[in-house]
Amino acid sequence: MTDGMLVGLLLFGALLFALGLYGALAQRNAVRVLLAVELMLLAGGLNVVALTRFLPAGAENRRLGPLPLAGDYAAALGQTTTLFFLAVAAAEVAIGLAAVIAAYRLRPTPNVDEMDERE
Amino acid sequence: MNGQAVAFFALAAVGLLGVIGFLRAPRILHAVLALVAAFLAVAGLFVLVGAEFLAAATVLLYAGAITVMAVFAIMLTPGGEEKRGAPRWARGARGWAGLVAAGVGAAVATSVLATPFQRSPYAVDGPTDTALLGTLLLSDRYGLHFEVITLVLLAALVGAIVLAREEAIPVRGGARAPDATPPTPPPAPQKTPAALREPTADGPAPEAPAEREAERELVGAGRGDGR
Lengths: 119, 227
What we know:
The complex is a heterodimer. Helices cover about 70% and strands about 0% of the residues of chain A. By secondary structure, chain A is an all-alpha fold. Chain A has one domain: Helix Hairpins. In chain A, α1 (about 5-25) runs antiparallel to α2 and α2 runs antiparallel to α3 (about 75-105). By secondary structure, chain B is an all-alpha fold. Among the domains of chain B are: about 1-75, Up-down Bundle (Four Helix Bundle (Hemerythrin (Met), subunit A)); about 165-225, no CATH class. Chain B has helices at about 5-25, 30-50, 50-75, 90-115, 130-135, 145-165, 175-180, 195, 205-225. In chain B, α1 packs antiparallel against α2 and α2 runs antiparallel to α3 (about 50-75). The longest helix of chain B is centred in the middle third of the chain and has 26 residues, at about 90-115. The radius of gyration of chain B is 25 Å and the shape is globular. In chain B, about 20% of the residues are buried. Residues about 175-180, about 200-210 and about 220-225 of chain B have low confidence and may be disordered. At the A-B interface, α1, α2 and α3 of A face α1, α2, α3, α4 and α5 of B. Chain A: InterPro entries: NADH_UbQ_OxRdtase_chain4L/K, NUOK/Mnh_C1-like.
């Protein structure tokens, strides 16, 4: 892997994040808004994984302090962080979709702009 | 241009097309299907950078679980953009959203391009050892985080069930209540949980007016707040 590929991955992550942000702001359907937020989370995770892939691995890494394990430690740290991202994304989508369904009972529309209390 | 670069550009193109399809599709189910393509492309990128376990988790969680839950939510909340067109202000809102998103994307992109990234000479190629990930998750460094995230997931799933229960917020109008659901008592008799589980013979008839009363109260309260 080369430096150019890291830049490419980071730019792709930024693009995904920006498109997800656009979707979260511009979409009207609540489910689409939630999925756009999921896309933003995944883009952030992709950037973390790509960056830690280019850090020094194993015992040569001075910034991480004394390392208890051998192997590609830096990349494993990044991937563990991204695993937490995935868990948070799952929790978020469960709560979010339940909230969408609960809001639909009060006001039968899936569009976020029609969910306010005014008629 | 080696094979990795070709794979990267191909996956990035698939992901980009998927996201554009998600944003542009007029029908929401098509949008979700396009988003699955984008999720799979990101999983492919994870494989490309050597995060194979993460790629598998992404396919399972994003392309599988989250999409299926979204489809469930879409099926349960019909009557969206297919029926009514977008209001007039929506075009302006789209412009503002595009401006904000383009600004954030441009800021991140310029900072990425301005940073002189250099691959560490000690970085290694190839797939990451999945056993190392598992050891790390249960080590001193991440053990507490791991336990906390399990609690977060548990609380989120219990909260989702509580939120989406029909007793939490009754269906508005009461049209669905008598035929579609078993007799649900109004919020008052919570002291007898057996009534929730076992519908008695005289359950539906006397309880229906009370439920409608509770709904009217709820709707009235909502209107009162709004004005």
